[in-house]
Amino acid sequence: MRFVTAHASAAALFLSLFALPAMPQELAKPVRIVVGFPPGTTGDVIARIMAPRMAEGVGQPVTVENRPGAGSSLAAEAVVRSTPDGTTLLASTIANAINASLYALPFDFDRDLAPVSFLAETPGLLVAHPSAPAAMKDLIAAARAKPGALQYGSSGNGTVTHLWGELLALDSGATFTHVPYKGSSQILADILEGRLALMFTPASTVIAQVKAGKLRALGAIAAKRISLLPDVPTLAESGIAGFDSGLWFGLNAPAATPRTTISRLNAEVARVLSIAGVRESLAAQSIIAAPGSSDDFGAFVRRETQKWARVVKAAGVKAE
Q: Are 173 and 141 in contact (CB under 8 A)?
C-alpha cells in the first residue's frame, strides 16, 4: 500500500509539472521605452537608469526614445498604435492622467493602454515667500478672507503645477489667483523677490532655498513627509484632500498585450527597482522607487484620471 501511495504521489507530481504555466521566453525583439518629454526630465532619467538593467533580464536591448509634445500625449498615442507584443512601452506620468480630460485625444489612456507597473514618484511641495502665513490653516484663512489676493505661479495652463492650485482651491473652499509662466525659473525668481506669494513645484528644485530660509515650505505633496524636510507636514496631514501622491511615473503597454507578457514585464520592473544601485541612483535625484502590481497601478491610474477630470471641469481649465 505504501508503494502504491508513493507511486501515485510521484505520478501526480509528474503530471502537475506539465500543468504549470511555461516560463516566459525572451521578448522577440529590442524593447523601446517611449518618453513624452525631452532628455534630462524626470521620466527620461528614470527610463535611462532602468533600461540597461531591464535589458539584462529580458534578453534584448532596451532603448529610450524621446517623443515630446502635447504633454506626453504624442508618446502615448505612438505606444497605443504599436504592436502589442511588450516591446514598445510608455513611460507614463501624471500628465497622461490629466490630459485625458484636458484634450480631445484620439485614444483613451485607461482603455487603450495596459498598466504594467508603477515605477517611481518624486514629491511635490507648496512653498511661499517668508512673508506669507506660516501654516496651511492660516494660509487658507487668509485666502478666504481676501479671495484672489494670494497669487500662485505655474509653468502653464493645464500643467500639474497649475492643477495642484485648482485642487487646493476646490478642496479648501479658498480662492487663489493663478499666474501662468512659460517656465519654472522665473516663478522661482519672482517668489524669492516677493512678487509672488505661492508656488507648487517638485520638491527637489526648492529644498535648498527652504533650508536656507529663503522660502517657507507649507506642505508636501506625497504619501509621507519628505526625508530632507521631516518637519514639513504633508498637505494630507493638514486636512487637504487629494494630495497623497506627487509627480508619479509608471510603465504602460498597448492594451492588447498578452497578460503573460504584462506579468513578465511587471516582474522585471520589480527586479530592477530592487537593485540597490538603481534605487540609489534614483534617490540621488529625489526620485523614490515604488514598484507594485499591474492591477494596483491600473486602479491608481483610474483614480487619478477621475480626480483630475473633476478638477479640470470644476475649474474650467483650458489647455494653452
A: no
- Which CATH number do you get for residue 154? 3.40.190.10
Claim to verify: residue 131 and residue 214 sit in the same structural domain:
yes
**Burial (CB count within 10 angstroms: exposed 0-12, middle 13-18, buried 19+), residue 230:** exposed
Helices (H) and strands (E) in the chain, counts: 12, 11
Write out pLDDT tens, residues 132-159: 888 999 999 999 999 999 999 999 999 9
Q: Which residues pair with 65 in a beta bridge?
A: 34
216, 187 in Cβ contact below 8 A?
Answer: no
**CA-CA distances (angstroms) from residue 23 to 130, 262, 293?**
58, 13, 19
Cα dihedral: 101, 34, 181, 138 (round 10): 70
3 state SS of 112? helix
Final residue in a domain of this structure, among 205, 221, 237: 221
pTM of this structure? 0.88
